[in-house]
Write a structure and sequence with these properties.
- Helix 2 packs parallel to helix 3 and helix 10 crosses helix 11.
- The protein has a six-stranded mixed β-sheet. Strands 8-7-6-9 form a four-stranded parallel β-sheet, sandwiched between helices.
- It is built from eleven helices and 13 strands.
- It is globular and about 55 Å long.
- It is an alpha/beta fold and 372 residues long.
- Bound molecules: pyridoxal-5'-phosphate and zinc ion.
- Pyridoxal-5'-phosphate binds next to helix 2, helix 7 and helix 11.
């Protein structure tokens, strides 16, 4: 993966950095993206591989190499099914059917593959739970030491999942932002690799396979994609995937992308409705959707730009609707974590199927057993 054809690129000063450096930010302080690279999504380019690495020709891997072999846990092709069998136009994609029970495995598989290829011995990461569980599991599989920082409000079950994989769990008092600060400090110590789903753009590369799978399953893009947004892991992955499909001529316009925030913590929604290009932090007023409660998203401006590029919109999941939405999903057999119910709550509050003509896809990002 560390070939000359792939590299990081600073969003602020456009400087290029080699992929095989343990960096997470440019020297100027800017956030890193991956420099654009050619992708191939033809059937011929797809590998005989029972994992998302079947799309390796659209990921930053040199052809003929397979560095994921000792890392992948067979994460791939999650089910795409009607929410209600009598209403085939509203589909749910069961990304909770991933190895660690959330879609974060898409990004962690790619990022930990790179860490392993670089000979990293110790990974540091912070998350409100699912990204930590993913990175901990993939680090365990790759034989890399792992330290995960989580806010004190993290569900006990997510902490148990992280610890069970052998990672050192550091519970940080205070907010999600306090946790991020503690992880940043630890990441700065010698020998640590900051495997952040927020800062490291390789994570977003893995997440874009969500879009490839949709396209492959349907043979086209659905009219509307709902996307929960906190730090933008899924949203920025969706943007990359849609760009790739566009560049290859598979789609000629973007689907309607509806970004979802929780009512109790909605800085992106606030900035969007005020027409801003940067995101002002908001106080977290408390939300049942802990997984997307990001009061000061590091990639806020990039998230707003992505929504603008895609011609998308931002809606809010009413807090009062999240519990009932979780029950309604479970009543159809889909037992999701509370954060994931916010997406369905937002869909219903925005008018449901009647408000979104054509096919709508709601991602079910995390499993119910994570947050009883
Ligand atoms: C990570 C995650 C999201 C998306 O959150 P971001 O902060 O935007 O990455 C949504 N739902 C669940 C269950 C998650 O784990
Ligand atoms: Zn820079």
């Amino acid at each position: 993966m560390s070939g000359a054809e792939f590299g990081y690129q600073c969003r602020d000063c456009a400087r290029s950095l080699a992929l095989d450096q343990p960096v997470f930010r440019c020297g100027c302080g800017g956030l890193l993206d991956l420099a654009p690279f050619p992708v191939d999504l033809t059937a011929a380019a797809r590998l005989e591989e029972r994992s998302l690495f079947r799309y390796a020709a659209a990921l930053p891997f040199r052809a003929g190499t397979a560095p994921w072999r000792e890392v992948s846990m067979g994460e791939w092709l999650t089910p795409l099914v009607p929410l209600d069998p009598r209403r085939p136009e509203v589909l749910v994609k069961l990304d909770y059917a991933m190895p660690t029970l959330s879609f974060k495995d898409r990004g962690a598989a790619v990022l930990v593959t790179q860490a392993k290829a670089m000979g990293v011995r110790r990974i540091v990461q912070d998350s409100s739970g699912n990204a930590g569980a993913s990175v901990a599991a993939y680090a365990a599989r790759a034989g890399i030491g792992c330290e995960i920082y989580v806010p004190e409000a993290t569900s006990a079950r997510k902490i148990a999942q992280i610890a069970a994989c052998g990672a050192a769990v550091k519970v940080v008092p205070g907010s999600r932002e306090d946790t991020a600060a503690a992880a940043l400090e630890a990441a700065g110590r010698p020998g640590a690799f900051y495997a952040s789903h927020v800062y490291n753009p390789l994570f977003h590369q893995g997440v874009k396979t969500y879009v490839f799978e949709l396209f492959e399953a349907l043979g086209r893009m659905p009219e509307t994609l709902f996307v929960p947004v906190g730090n933008g892991t899924l949203l920025l992955g969706v943007q990359l995937g849609l760009r790739d499909l566009g560049a290859l001529g598979h789609i000629h316009r973007f689907p309607r992308v509806v970004a979802v925030q929780a009512e109790g913590c909605a800085p992106i929604h606030q900035a969007w409705t005020r027409g801003k290009v940067v995101v002002e932090p908001v106080p977290n007023e408390g939300t049942a959707a802990e997984g997307i409660a990001i009061a000061a998203p590091a990639r806020g401006a990039q998230i707003l730009a992505a929504i603008r590029e895609l011609g998308g919109e931002v809606v809010v999941a009413p807090e009062a609707g999240i519990g009932p939405a979780k029950e309604a999903l479970a009543a159809r057999g889909f037992f999701v974590e509370t954060t994931t119910a916010a997406t369905y709550s937002a869909f219903l509050a925005a008018g449901g199927a009647a408000a979104f003509p054509g096919t709508v896809v709601l991602p079910l990002c995390g499993a119910g057993l994570k947050s009883l």
